[in-house]
Amino acid sequence: MQCRLTASILLFALTINQEVIAQTFSYDGNRWYEIEVSIFTNQNVSSVDQELFLPELVELFYPEALLQLTPYLQNYVLDSWQTESALNSSNVLVGDSTDSQEAVVVLPNYGPELREANTDFRLIDKTRDPFIALGEEEHEFARFNSNIDRSPGHRILFHAVWRQPVLNKVQGSAILVNGGDRYGQHSELEGSLLISYNVNRVDVDTRLWRNSFNIISDQQWDVPLPPFAEFMAANTQSTGSAFDLVIDQVYPMLQTRQMISNELHYLDHPALGMLIEVRPYELPPLFDFSLD
Predict the structure, then answer these.
(1) Cβ burial, residue 52 (10 Å; 0-12/13-18/19+)
(2) Residues 96 and 207 in one domain
(3) What's the gap between Cα 217 and its chain centre?
(4) Highest mean pLDDT range out of 7-16, 90-99, 199-208, 220-229?
(5) What does the pLDDT average to over 200-229?
(6) pLDDT value at position 44?
(7) Mean pLDDT on 100-126
(8) Domain count, the chain
(9) How far apart are the C-alpha atoms of 144 and 171, rounded to whole Å?
(10) Higher-confidence position of 286 and 102
(11) Is the per-residue pLDDT at 247 higher than 80?
(12) Rg (CA), the chain
């Protein structure tokens, strides 16, 4: 099934008439690209020779220069909503109705929590800001992802589209990757992706690993805690379990791939698969606003 899926993906990619465009510099002096990535499981991971993935053979870490994609609609989500209701009703009775005093009806106060003004606040500009996780209207992998999810041997763990200036490997920053089922502080898919420019091409460095969870483990894996843990805990739903699960096996995916613009690239691995495409992007021109 895995081979048939991979073949169908690549065959579909070859049928797309894509023109390779030489990337130019935007007005900020950088080469910009729109990047789309889908990472999915190979479900037959139980048949993989685990001797190839031993703790002493693998060093897992997050690069120091690491960024997290910002959700496009982040500015439109209220931090919290205050309510004094302790019941699932529109009104709350305060006091004992058997007392001689009348019960006081308190209407819950719905609304955003007031706070000091943030003078640094600005709305996200998805056409000019880097590392913004774009919405579905910008996605081009919808058909690929649908075919992957319909396959019994695969499951989408991570999908994102963003734009960024692509610098050389020394100057560039990696992005945090996290997805799949989550148990405690760890997720099924963890790691980072670094997109960099190398002479006349774009490279992707995958420092990813897929965690397998169990009740007990015969091996001691040194898996680093993911950065931005507080944000992730608040925005990721943990998979419930009657037991405290531990990481019993890790399948690292450490690869570097040279890429061509506007071409779909497939990275294979015994436990994971990844589709990635880099599309040249030019910043829209700035405009001056005046009341004159």
Answers:
(1) exposed
(2) no
(3) 28
(4) 199-208
(5) 89
(6) 74
(7) 65
(8) 2
(9) 32
(10) 286
(11) yes
(12) 24
The runs of H, that is alpha helices, within 126-224 are 142-150
Q: Is 181 left (phi over 0), alpha (psi -120 to 50) or beta?
A: beta
**Residue the block writes with tokens 């606003």:** 289
CA–CA separation, 98 vs 81, rounded Å?
32
Cα–Cα dist 101/95, whole Å: 8
CA distance 268 to 14: 18
- Give the DSSP letter of residue 233: H
Asked whether residue 68 is domain-assigned, the answer is yes
Q: Which amino acid is at 144?
A: F
Closest residue by Cα to residue 33 from 125, 156, 161, 146: 161
DSSP readout, 13-65?
HHHS----------TTSS-EEEEEEEEEE-GGGGGS-GGGS-GGG------SS
How far is 207 from 188, CA to CA, in rounded Å? 14
182 and 130 within one domain: yes
d(CA 203, CA 172): 11
Instruction: Determine the structural domain holding residue 97 and report its residue range.
Output: 80-114
56 and 152 belong to one structural domain = yes
Model pLDDT, residue 181: 92
Residue 79 structure tokens: 């931090």
Q: State the pLDDT confidence band at 219, using cuts at 50, 70 and 90.
A: confident
Rounded Cα distance, 1 and 277, in Å:
23
Q: Is the pLDDT of residue 145 over 60?
A: yes
**pLDDT, mean of residues 70-92:** 55
Least confident of 70-74, 103-107, 210-214: 103-107
pTM of the entire structure? 0.75
Cα angle 271, 272, 273 (rounded to 5 degrees) comes to 145
